[in-house]
Design goal:
Layout: H1 4-7, E1 11-18, E2 21-28, E3 36-45, H2 48-54, E4 67-74, E5 85-88, E6 91-92, H3 98-101, E7 112-113, E8 126-130, E9 134-136, H4 143-146, H5 149-161, E10 170-173, H6 177-187, E11 193-197, H7 200-207, E12 212-215, E13 232-237, H8 244-251, E14 252-260, H9 272-277, E15 281-284, H10 290-298, E16 308-313, H11 317-325, E17 331-335
Parallel strand pairs: 10-11, 10-13, 11-12, 13-14, 14-15, 16-17
Antiparallel strand pairs: 1-2, 3-4, 3-8, 3-17, 4-5, 5-9, 6-7
Helix pairs in contact: 5-6, 5-10
Bound molecules: zinc ion (2 copies).
């Protein structure tokens, strides 16, 4: 009889967050639950949520990472998926509750979220991912684009939540990774898209792709005199700061909309009277539809490559993480060198 264990190296390299510490360890390759596929991770992105997790968000302990592209290594019952390049929706609902039954896994109260909540993530050689969450990446989309599927879907979510037309006057506050993506996406809807930020090099990336940019030069946007107040139909708040919402409210026109992307640990204090008197719409906006992101990338209307600052191997994760933590850094990626040893 063949010893199955000899055929396949059953451990993998993985980044583990526990007690606010990062370690890179050998752990067992995930054992698949029902309706899951084993995905070999090729490229993964570090995002602000990962910093929050290290600092105790969701009491997370385990393998982080939720932005990735990889190849399906095994998919029991779905041989058609094996060998395919994939990205994934990060939310996995319980499948039983009323919300899941409406087809909305993203808001299931019992959901697990890849690399964020009750489910290991992608800063590892392999990750177990529910089959239902996988999306095959078309050949025309490279790995360094596909790795943006998750944050791009979050930016595109705005266009699913509200109508943005060529007449819309739009301002995005914050030139972080999310703000940049939001500005680039909204520019496809209206040429009246302004990005306000503090980092000339990042504003330049948006500027080169047709977005009007304003550098707030270290001041809060509210103090920036050259941003017209009370004039914008849509203000996207992506500053990452609990005060960003007040800057956004100052810029939106009466009956206009503020889309809130910032999730801050610190609570925001807002003057609701302004919201009431001016009849503003405040919309919270989080994850989006991964398929929408893939369809968008296929059109090649925005160039994602300038958003990448550096690529590190998994073994140098700590260095990569420190780099990603630097203020004003662009996207830091982790590339896996996960050759399969002893595979049958
Ligand atoms: Zn993210
Ligand atoms: Zn559910």
């Amino acid at each position: 009889m063949i010893d199955e264990s000899k055929k396949f190296e059953k451990t993998m390299k993985a980044v583990v967050f526990e007690n606010r510490k990062i370690s890179i360890v050998d752990v067992p390759i995930p054992v698949l639950s029902k309706n899951e596929a084993l995905v070999k991770i090729d490229l993964a992105g570090i995002c602000a949520t990962d910093f929050a997790l290290l600092n105790g968000y969701h009491n997370f302990a385990g393998i982080p990472g939720h932005e990735f592209t990889g190849v399906v290594f095994s998919a029991p019952g779905r041989a058609d998926l094996e060998g395919q390049r994939v990205v994934a929706d990060i939310n996995s609902g319980c499948g039983q509750c009323d919300i899941c039954r409406t087809g909305d896994q993203r808001h299931c109260g019992n959901r697990s979220v890849i690399g964020i909540r009750d489910r290991n993530g992608v800063f590892a050689d392999f990750c177990a991912i529910p089959l239902a969450n996988l999306h095959v990446v078309p050949d025309s989309i490279g790995d360094e684009e596909a790795v943006f599927a998750e944050p791009l879907a979050a930016a595109l979510e705005i266009t699913r939540q509200m109508e943005v037309s060529e007449q819309s006057r739009v301002v995005v506050l914050g030139d972080g990774k999310m703000g940049l993506l939001c500005a680039l996406v909204l520019r496809q809807k209206t040429s009246n898209t302004v990005l306000v930020g503090r980092h000339p090099d990042k504003l330049e990336i948006a500027g080169q792709q047709g977005v009007h940019t304003i550098c707030s030069q270290g001041k809060s946007t509210g103090e920036t005199s050259n941003v017209e107040k009370g004039k914008f139909d849509l203000v996207v708040e992506a500053t990452g700061s609990p005060d960003g919402i007040n800057e956004a409210i100052a810029l939106v026109r009466p009956e206009g909309t503020v889309v809130i992307k910032t999730t801050s640990f610190e609570k925001s204090v807002i003057d609701l009277a302004n919201v009431v008197v001016n009849e503003l719409h405040l919309i919270g906006s989080r994850c989006g539809d991964i398929q929408l992101a893939l369809d968008f990338m296929k059109k090649k209307v925005i160039d994602l490559h300038p958003l990448i600052e550096a690529v590190y191997p998994l073994e140098k994760f700590e260095k990569a993480f420190a780099h990603a933590l630097k203020k004003g850094s662009r996207k830091i990626l982790i590339r896996n060198n996960n050759e399969i040893k002893g595979q049958a």
